[in-house]
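Marked as duplicate of an earlier ticket. Keeping the data here for the record.
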Amino acid sequence: MSKLASTNDPFFLTRFKEVYPEFYERLTTTYPSLTANNIRFAAFLRLNLSTKTIAQYKNISIRTIESRKYRLRKNSAFLLMLILING
């Protein structure tokens, strides 16, 4: 899974749905307006990837990742506490 994430593989989200179907279902049911990028970002967080690792995978700055985390926390109670602590 990490290899798919690190190469920005379009099948990452498909594979993530297969491995974590309950998490994906809760996420999309609770927050139906999430974009594909936000879902991918939540998947990275679910995989416990660090800010630095996510920034490397996405080829963006660490500050950008921190801003995204802040916006998610602000707008959605941090994705309902990351769907009730990864449940």
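See parent ticket for discussion. The radius of gyration is 12 Å.
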